[in-house]
Design goal:
This protein is mainly alpha-helical. The chain contains 19 helices and no strands. The protein has helices at residues 16-39, 41-48, 52-80, 82-99, 106-134, 137-168, 172-192, 206-229, 234-254, 270-300, 305-316, 322-329, 335-353, 363-389, 396-428, 438-446, 450-457, 461-494, 509-514. The longest helix has 34 residues, at 461-494. It starts with 15 loop residues before the first helix and ends in a 5-residue tail after the last helix. The model is unreliable at 1-10 and 497-519 (pLDDT under 50).
């Protein structure tokens, strides 16, 4: 029976499952928009040309703007309306995907990819914050688990879809499919999602948003430029220094504004810190493989795009089932134990994959990929739900913005760093004495462009393949070590079953009573 002086809980929105469908479909687009161009990169390069750095921006432009925009999008969603931000992002994503059909050069392609990253951030932040308003308790956990499963479907079938479309049509067909999915999610969102906002939201922290974006942009560009210019070159050092200065300025700004874009006080709570470590962990244990392995399979080992997509399916197939099972298991076992165990399994899979050599039985490639996929699927089904559980409900936009920014910005930086590291390792393993154009040739080889690397280095392709395999072997050992360390950190911070209560100084219970649907 309700307390006589307490307002009754609002009835559940009867259309909440259609809203969930719209957000999940938007979530499906994100991994397809990421893995599709990664698989089709050789075809894009053949069609549009471009330097190694320009081709690197095919994936990095999307990931960078996605990561930089998530906190901004979350803040805008809280202030101006979650539905409005969600719909705006989907509309831009739909239109920009259609514009891709007319692109004629790699620079225009990269610019539109950057725009798509911003649009995807708006759709994701607005959609997830909107879900937090219409689902509560066990239903909210189930909804976010389904969203994680949808991401898994996109990751599993994205390479397959891209490989099929590129082999039978053209790389532009990938963006036709993205535009179609976006349009369906857009229609469902317009028709069924209700508007909601945070009544206590302040003006957007533009100084903080600007300094954060500039810091990530300079850092990513520095890492991408380092293999060609040299890690100790003046240009690269200046870029790194600029990134550091802007990040220091960002922290100073966030400590001074009344309602910061990033509430740094939340980092006092171990569980919140653990969630951010968990967000970053898949970047170098799993996400980088979604880009590097297609380049290896197609460019170095000679797979077709459809064959590479089939092989990549083994890496992401566990995402179809295990995230939901992990969500169910979390009712009985600590999320820290599940997540750290998954990361340890992933580290073992990376070590196993390092033993694979081209020419060995096919199963010796598939099994370690399945192991990595199984390992990363365990924390994957818990991350989004954990992200919104450590802040008040009406700051859900900020929570998802911080968590998703750490995850996606970490993925963008990890792609740049791991790609540069692979190029450096390849250069160290090049055959013979120091070669002319060694840095440029190694960078081309790391991007899977075997023929161009052989022309630059004037070397035999068989010898270059061996250099690449040795470098990739060492890279997998490094990634396995980083993943194992992450497992320990996540366990320490997330080992407790229940999070401590967190309150925000500007958020009160009255705020949650004031917030109402405006439609």
């Amino acid at each position: 029976m309700n307390h006589p002086y307490r307002l009754p809980d609002p009835a559940p929105d009867p259309q909440r499952w259609i809203i969930l469908f719209s957000v999940c479909l938007a979530g499906l687009i994100m991994p397809i928009n990421f893995t599709g161009p990664a698989v089709s990169l050789p075809a894009i390069a053949a069609s549009l040309g471009g330097s190694v750095v320009a081709l690197s921006w095919v994936t990095n432009a999307f990931m960078l703007t996605f990561g930089c925009s998530l906190m901004i999008a979350g803040a805008l969603a809280d202030r101006f309306g979650r539905k409005r931000v969600f719909i705006s992002g989907l509309a831009v994503l739909t239109l920009s995907s259609m514009v891709m059909l007319m692109v004629q050069d790699i620079i225009a392609f990269d610019v539109i990819r950057a725009l798509q990253g911003i649009a995807a951030a708006a759709a994701f932040a607005g959609g997830t914050a909107g879900l937090a308003q219409v689902f509560d308790g066990a239903e909210r956990a189930k909804a976010f688990s389904l969203l994680g499963t949808t991401f898994g479907i996109g990751l599993a079938f994205g390479p397959l879809l891209a490989g099929f479309l590129v082999q039978h049509f053209d790389w532009r067909a990938i963006f036709i499919s993205v535009s179609l999915f976006s349009a369906i999610a857009l229609f469902a969102g317009i028709r069924y999602m209700h508007e909601s906002r945070d009544p206590a939201a302040a003006k957007l922290d533009w100084p903080g948003a600007t300094t954060f974006t500039l810091a990530l942009t300079l850092l990513t560009y520095a890492v991408l430029q380092a293999p060609d210019s040299g890690w100790g070159s003046r240009e690269v050092i200046a870029l790194f220094s600029g990134a550091l200065l802007f990040m220091i300025a960002f922290v100073a700004i966030e400590n001074r504004v009344r309602r910061p874009m990033l509430d740094l006080s939340l980092f006092r709570y171990p569980r919140f810190v653990g969630v951010q470590f968990l967000a970053a962990a898949p970047a170098y244990s799993y996400v980088v493989l979604l880009v590097l392995l297609p380049l290896r399979f197609i460019g170095i080992e000679g797979y077709g795009t459809q064959e590479a997509g089939i092989v990549m399916f083994a890496l992401s197939a566990p995402m179809l089932v295990l995230p939901v099972l992990a969500g169910m298991l979390a009712h009985r076992v600590s999320a820290g134990i599940i997540s750290s165990l998954g990361l340890l399994i992933c580290a073992f899979g990376l070590l196993w994959l390092a033993q694979y050599v081209p020419g060995k039985p096919f199963v010796l490639l598939i099994l370690p990929l399945l192991t990595i996929g199984c390992g990363i699927s365990l924390p994957w089904g818990l991350m989004d739900g954990l992200a919104v559980s450590v802040v008040p409900k009406d700051r859900a936009g900020m929570a998802t913005g911080i968590f998703s920014t750490v995850r996606v910005a970490g993925e963008g930086i990890a792609l740049a760093v791991v790609g540069a590291l692979l190029a450096t390792l390849v250069e160290q393993h090049l055959p013979g004495s120091p070669l002319a154009n060694a840095a440029a040739g190694a960078h081309r080889l790391a991007m899977g462009d075997l023929q161009q690397a052989a022309a630059l280095l004037n070397a035999d392709t068989a010898a270059l393949k061996q250099s690449y395999e040795a470098a990739f072997h060492n890279l997998l050992y490094i990634l396995a070590l980083m993943t194992a360390i992450s497992a320990g950190i996540v366990f320490i911070f997330l080992r407790h079953a229940s999070p401590p209560p967190i309150t925000h100084p500007q958020t009160t219970d009255a705020n949650s009573l004031v917030e109402r649907s405006t439609e």
